[in-house]
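Incident log, structure service

09:12 report received: a user says their structure output differs between two submissions of the same chain.
09:20 pulled the input from the user's history:
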Amino acid sequence: QVATHAAMLAPLWVCTRLRLWSYAVVGMATLLTSILYHLCEVGEAVACYGAHQGPVLGMTCGQWHRLDNVFAILSLQMLSLHLARPPPALAEPLRWAALAVTTWAQEAGPWRISHTIVPI
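09:34 re-ran on a clean worker, output below:
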């Protein structure tokens, strides 16, 4: 887990150096929600073996997983938008639309494959 999460630090550094703030924010949120989801997942596994472990920051493993899905999908969308290079006037509305569609899809049916594939 440490190696996969540490791999996100270099892209975050590049985004901040290039002043790509929306990408940096989505990347940081992806990193944090992933860490918290996996921390909660381990905590729940420990709870299965007799140790009492409550929610992490008030959220269950399933809630962290859903939020992790949202930001993982947003990361792929931001990468796609960056590579597509839309006109600047269109880029910001596309980012907000991506956020809205992804959030709705993951809240409506986080375990439906179509609600993951369509936003990507």
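09:41 both user submissions now match this output. Likely a transient worker issue. Closing.
09:42 reviewer note: The chain has a mean pLDDT of 86. The helical segments are 2-6, 9-17, 21-48, 61-84, 88-108, 114-117.
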